[in-house]
């Protein structure tokens, strides 16, 4: 018994006429009769009563017809699920991210991907860059969004987003009256920043920005999250330099001002295992803007 025999039998059971069933199946009558006979032989029962005038289902045929419909429906469903899995429409994707990433357009792309693919379970994990690389290698996450750093072998990477830095100040700070901030004017302020071990390259980038105008920032307070940085600045613990996307944070007594002339922008990098084959993961990477190779995903939307 095979699926073709079941399809032939269902068509004949519904038409109760060999000629009409053969036409419905787009075949001739001999292969139809041959496959029905093979099905009966494999089951060891007669499924049809044949006369020169009519075809009728036996009691066994009526039961097999009901079961055949179920089997063919399950087969069609399995085929559909396989196709959706291949296109990255079902499954799970675990995405690691540094805190500021969700404030950028990448956060909206991740949300939009989940809306377009409701059967893909998108799970977010806030981790620093080191933690994401470890989690990726341990297969605890599928994609990471990190600050630029040296990437180990076996991990692919691609720049996903870049933006300028801004300055966070208490709203009553004298410089908050200025439209733009000259970094040199921050030389006497205490800074609120994350610890260097949290993200060395990103930390060093901010320190280098200050060094480029002749001073080393006095990092007096070190905290892990961007929202905590913004809160401490609003509470007058110091000033900070952060990616521009943080300006969506609104707090009493918090001012966000663009910096004047500055060098390298803040950057976010996507990372993933270079042997990644999961279609849902590749579909998410495509949506984020990574140049992944996609066989089945040629029609997946790239989100703006």
UniProtKB/TrEMBL annotation:
Every HTH lysR-type domain range: 1-58
This protein's record includes keyword GTP-binding: no
GO terms of molecular function: DNA binding; DNA-binding transcription factor activity
A family per Pfam: LysR_substrate
Keywords: DNA-binding, Plasmid, Transcription, Transcription regulation
CC terms in the record's Gene Ontology section: protein-DNA complex
UniProt-listed InterPro entries: LysR_HTH_N, LysR_subst-bd, WH-like_DNA-bd_sf, WH_DNA-bd_sf
Segments forming a coiled coil: none
PANTHER family assigned to the protein according to its UniProt record, in alphabetical order: HCA OPERON TRANSCRIPTIONAL ACTIVATOR HCAR, TRANSCRIPTIONAL DUAL REGULATOR HCAR-RELATED
Stated family: Belongs to the LysR transcriptional regulatory family.
UniProt name for this protein: Transcriptional regulator, LysR family
Native source organism of the sequence: Cupriavidus metallidurans (strain ATCC 43123 / DSM 2839 / NBRC 102507 / CH34)
Classification lineage: Bacteria, Pseudomonadati, Pseudomonadota, Betaproteobacteria, Burkholderiales
């Amino acid at each position: 018994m095979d699926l073709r025999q079941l399809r032939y039998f269902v068509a004949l059971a519904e038409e109760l006429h060999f000629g009409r069933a053969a036409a419905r199946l787009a075949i001739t009558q001999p292969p139809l009769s041959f496959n029905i006979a093979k099905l009966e032989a494999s089951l060891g029962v007669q499924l049809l009563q044949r006369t020169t005038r009519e075809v009728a289902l036996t009691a066994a045929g009526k039961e097999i017809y009901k079961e055949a419909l179920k089997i063919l429906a399950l087969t069609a469903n399995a085929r559909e699920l396989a196709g959706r899995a291949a296109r990255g429409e079902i499954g799970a994707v675990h995405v690691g991210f540094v805190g500021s990433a969700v404030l950028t357009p990448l956060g909206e792309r991740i949300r939009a991907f989940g809306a377009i693919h409701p059967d893909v379970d998108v799970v977010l994990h806030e981790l620093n860059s080191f933690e994401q690389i470890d989690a990726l290698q341990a297969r605890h996450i599928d994609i990471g969004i990190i600050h630029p750093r040296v990437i180990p072998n076996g991990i692919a990477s691609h720049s996903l987003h870049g933006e300028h830095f801004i300055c966070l100040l208490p709203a009553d700070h004298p410089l908050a009256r200025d439209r733009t901030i000259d970094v040199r004017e921050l030389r006497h302020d205490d800074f609120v920043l994350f610890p260097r071990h949290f993200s060395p390259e990103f930390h060093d980038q901010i320190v280098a920005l200050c060094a480029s105008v002749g001073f080393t920032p006095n990092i007096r307070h070190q905290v892990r999250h961007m929202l905590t940085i913004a809160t401490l600045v609003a509470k007058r613990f110091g000033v900070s330099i952060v990616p521009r996307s943080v300006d969506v944070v609104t707090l009493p007594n918090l001012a966000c001002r663009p910096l004047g002339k500055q060098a390298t922008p803040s950057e976010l990098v996507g990372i993933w295992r270079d042997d990644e084959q999961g279609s849902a993961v590749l579909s998410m990477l495509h949506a984020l803007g990574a140049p992944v190779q996609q066989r089945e995903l040629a029609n997946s939307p790239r989100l703006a």
